Amino acid sequence: MEKLPPCPACNSPYTYEMDEKLVCPECGFEWVAESENEETAEEGLIVKDSNGAILQDGDAVVIIKDLPVKGAPKPIKAGTKVKSIRLVEGDHNIDCKIDGFGSMALKSEFVRKA
């Protein structure tokens, strides 16, 4: 059994693998494990906000327009700050948690870097 690194967010030793990511069961933090033999250059996924600034995992963003949410009685208001985003592949390329709404997937064209 291979030794997995502790969680970088809370230092929990109870991390486990899920697909290509490592997950912490205590705080819910997810990250990609880097191999010791790989020299990783910042290639791959590049996500830009509405102003063209490059976003990274963990950044804070501000929503720039009211966004209607299916099944919710009210939209997410412009100016709402979202902390600790996670970048993913696809059309909705930001995963995050918004206070009062829960987990959401957002398009980068509707946010700006805070």
Describe the structure.
This protein has 114 residues and is mostly beta strands. Helix content is 0%, strand content 29%. The chain contains no helices and eleven strands. The strands form four sheets. It has a three-stranded antiparallel β-sheet with strand order 1-2-3, with no helix packed on it. A hairpin with a 2-residue loop joins strand 1 and strand 2. About 6% of the residues have low confidence.
Relevant terms:
single chain; 114 residues; mainly beta; three-stranded antiparallel sheet; globular
Describe the structure concisely for a colleague.
The protein has 114 residues and is an all-beta fold.
* Dominant shape: globular
Low-confidence segments, ≥5 residues, pLDDT <50? Answer: 36-42
Order of helices and strands: EEEEEEEEEEE
**Through-space gap between termini:** 42 Å
Strand order of the largest sheet: 1-2-3
| Beta-strand share of residues | 25-35%
- SS-based structural class? mainly beta
Helical segment tally? Answer: 0
Q: Helicity, in percent?
A: under 10%
Please count the beta strands (DSSP E, at least 2 residues each): 11
Largest sheet: 3 strands, antiparallel
Query: Mean pLDDT, rounded to whole units?
Result: 86
Q: Gyration radius, to the nearest Å? A: 16 Å
